[in-house]
Structure formats: C-alpha cells, structure tokens
Amino acid sequence: MKRQRLLGYVFIAPNLIGMMIFMLIPALFSFYLMFTDWVFASGESPHFIGLDNFKMMVRDDLFAVSVKNTLLVLIPVPISIILGFLIAVMLNNRVYLQKTLRAFFFAPYFTSGIAIAFVWMVLFQPANGPINAFLRSVGIAEPPKWFASPDTAMYAVLIMMIAGGIGYNMIIYLAALQEISPEQLEAAKMDGATFGQLLRLIILPLVSPTTLFLMITGCIGSIKGFGMIYAITQGGPANSTTVFSIFAYKKAFNFYEMGYASAVSWSMFLLILGISLIQWAGQKKWVHY
Questions:
Q1: Please, which residues have CB within 8 angstroms of residue 37's CB and are 6 or more apart in sequence?
Q2: Among candidate residues 136, 132, 114, the one with its CA nearest the CA of residue 124
Q3: Rounded Cα distance, 73 and 63, in Å
Q4: pLDDT score, position 158
Q5: Which positions ≥6 away from 158 have C-beta within 8 Å?
Q6: CA pair distance 277, 265, nearest whole angstrom
Q7: Model-level pTM?
Q8: pLDDT tens per residue across span 228-249
Q9: Around 244, how many Cα atoms within 13 Å sit in the side-chain half-sphere?
Q10: SS3 label, residue 282
C-alpha cells in the first residue's frame, strides 16, 4: 500500500513541481506585490503601501472603462450557448452534410486565435470588407466603421466572441445530447409529446449540467479574454475595447507598474470568483442531476 502511494506521488511530482514553480509561487508573489508600489523599471525595491493601489483603481477612469467593457464581454456567453445548443439539436438529427457541418462550426475552436483575428479584421474592414459591402448593397450608405471607430469597436468584439463560442458550445452539447436515451424520447413521442414539449420537459433538464458547465467556463474565459482582442485593437481605439486583462497587461508591461497591475489582476480574480459562486449557488434551482 505504501509502495503504491509512493509511486502515485512520483507520477504526479512533475506536474506538481511545475504548477508550484510556474503558477503558485508567481501567484503568491503577485499577491504580495498588490500591496506595494513596485515599478519594475525603477530598479528600487517594493515598498509596502497597504490598500493604496485599490484606492488608485477607484479613482482611475480607465479602470472604470475596463470594468464596464469586461462586463460587456459577458453578454456573448448566454447568446453563444443558446445558438450552440440549437445547432447541436439540429446536427444531432440526420441532416444533409451532417459531419461537414459539425466540422465547419467547430473549426474556429481549434484554429489559431491570431488567424481568426485576421479573418475578422478583413470581414469588418470599413472600406472594402464583405460585411460593409453587404450593408451597402441593402441600402445602408454609411455602414459602421467597426474596429476603426470607438463607437462600434466593442460591438465588433462582441459579434466576434459570439461567433467564436458557438462551435465549442455545440460540440459539448452534442456529446450531452447523445447521452440522452432514445427510448425515453421515443416513449414521450408515443404519448403524444410535441417537439417543443420534448425540448422543454426532457432535453433541456437533462442537459442542464452541461449548460451550467458552459456558463461557468464561458464567463471565466470571457473575463480572462485577451489574445484576439489585443491582436486586433490593443484595447483601442480610444480605449473603447480595453478589458481587465488588457488593462493589467499595459500597466505591467508598458508602464512596468507591477504593484498596480497585480492589484488589477487580483480584482479580476475576485470578479471571476464572485460570478462563479453566484452561478454555483443559483444552479440548485434549475440544474437537474
């Protein structure tokens, strides 16, 4: 028994050591830094300043903008979940080109984020992009400038995030739908249940744990979202797409304000924790195991 336990520790040791070196220790160091005024480029040691970084955040207009934008990027989560579910229901039945369509919807998930960002830049190109060309063809003389304008850049980001989440949600829902017993659905049909009743009374309750999983992971992913937004807009124009992660990144690596950036990062962690706990507490009312 002791030998088996020792072997278990040996097998998990590489991952455990890696997690401690690259995640736990930096996280603890960042926790310490958020109470300091450490500016990396100054060459001075960190000085303890208590909660001053958090007081600075309250007075920082750009931080307020990043909070508003971070809350906005949560909007695509339920929309992409609903669309992913509907597409999964459709593709779970026999349809023409079923496998091709599944691959088509899932392709953005395993494609490089930078490549997808480039595609969206082309699609939303104000002068010659296909989206604005279509809008002009239907009579809109002055279509939006999308990423080029502070008024519309965030809308373009939200559309991009909705489209990007559909494929992943669809494939997870497909797996959940295939776990539902066909006999159960067939029995309900023989009792006269309509498709709407099947959906509302059988399918949705049975896939509710999957919905909870997608809601929690989707919110975490959206709040932490960085790569595609930064690749396209770098938080602009005029900070209109600056979210928590981009704000923290700029403070840390553009201005080297490591103490302030750590406080912003831990605020982001608290937001994620709060939203996840609310979802977990609310799941008792609608999730069926």
A1: 46, 47, 49, 52, 53, 259, 260
A2: 132
A3: 15
A4: 95
A5: 72, 73, 75, 76
A6: 18
A7: 0.89
A8: 899 999 998 999 999 999 999 9
A9: 24
A10: helix
Tokens of 119: 């595609």
Q: For the chain, list residues with pLDDT below 70.
A: none
Nearest to 184 by CA among 208, 205, 203, 171: 203
Residue 247: what pLDDT? 95
Phi, psi of 274 (to 5 degrees): -65, -45
Cβ–Cβ under 8 Å, residues 198 and 189: yes
Which of these, 113, 102, 128, lies nearest to 229 by C-alpha position?
113
Segment (H or E) for 278 = helix 258-282
The amino acid at residue 21 is: I
Q: What is the pLDDT of residue 106?
A: 82
- Buried residues in 14-34 as b, exposed as e (16+ CB within 10 A): eeeeeeeeeeeeeeeebeebb
pLDDT recorded at residue 75: 95
Question: At 55, which amino acid appears?
Answer: K
Closest CA to 105 of 82, 118, 87, 123: 87
H helical segments located in 93-152: 98-110, 113-123, 130-137
Reading the block at residue 84, the tokens are 């992913």
Q: How far apart are the C-alpha atoms of 258 and 41, rounded to whole Å? A: 9
pLDDT tens digits, 76-108: 999 999 999 999 999 988 878 878 888 888 887
